[in-house]
Here is the input.
Amino acid sequence: MTVFSTAGLFIALSLLIALILAVIVITPWLRATRIKNKPVDNQLLDINVAVFRERLAELKTDKDSGTIDDNHYQNQKLELERQLLDAQREAAPMVNPGIKSRLIITIWVPVLAAMAYLLISDRTPVFELWQAEDKVGQVADDLLTGKIDQPPEWAIEDGRQLITAMQTNVHRHADDPNRWMRLSELFLSLEVTDSALEALSRAYRLSPDNEEIATTYAQISFFANEGQLDATSRRVLQDVLANNPQHEGAQMLMAMGEARASNFEQAEGWIQRLRASIAAKPGDHTKALTSLDELSANVKAQQQQAAEGVNVTVKVNSSLLPLVKGDDVLFVAIRDVNGGPPFAAKRLPISVIQQGEASISLSDLDAMMPERTIQSARAAKTQLAVIARISHSGNASAESGDLSGNPVVISADQKQVNVEINQQIP
Here is the structure.
């Protein structure tokens, strides 16, 4: 449906409604003018009056014929006459509306119609949606159902139309996990990661047993979280491995996630498990096995670097726990006591704090710049301090309302430190 046909439909419906209202409002006025001087009798009352008169005539006939005596005749006549007087009424004619009433209707109907038109006239987004569906609606459906892999060139002349049509199509088939999956691929191609994750989460909820959807969801979530497995992606991978213990993609993600979380022994275990699974397959897998060996060596090197770092135990004062929100972010860093960029820092979801406490490892793996590491600071005899802060906004710089603790100075060879978050930044 085009904009012009839609506008025509709107005008036609408006005229029809106006005509109906005109008939409803004006017809009684015309009728009132015609019957102004003619009383309107109720038809049912006319019938009742005629019946009562016939009964009186019958009574007169019975009296004249001697069927009833004069006393009985008089009593029945009085009773019928009383009933006749009670029933015989005249209906009042309709009062003709005055000039004031006519002006009110005449003025307010156009005013209200104009106000309604102004309120609903700007339907540009709706018209654009209809245009998109008319033009590329079928292409969007074919893409989302896998009938075609690439849209024709004419369909991507206006990319926004195709995206709009695809989103509308998915929401109309909201119970189809494959459509949500393909919509997430569209968002990923546009580098809209948050929308892609939302689409994947819906696909996963609709079909949790689909390994492709589950592993894709976990993978995108893993990279969106800067190489960390959050509680959701970890649970998704565990469910996949529970159904298919040999799933290589899930095993690799678990290995990478555990290594990023500094759980090096678990990471090494997943690597060896994956290596054994690949080696047991027929064929030449030298390249894949070599890559796994390199990953294992990298994990061991990271483990060695982490061993030279600092283990930080962050505690939140019990009086501040009610101020912690579910979407807060925990920042932990090692920096020069005199200030400046940190030598190592981590940005973690607040969920790492359990029962008011969290254990975090900081090492050269967490260096923000390759040349600015903890080891280089210690070699230069730099006095280091550990800081911890809970941010409500998620920004790296401290803001009013954030929760923080006093910097804790550490010695050159110190491997363990406790930091308490015990104050709110004014």
Confidence is low (pLDDT under 50) at residues 90-94.
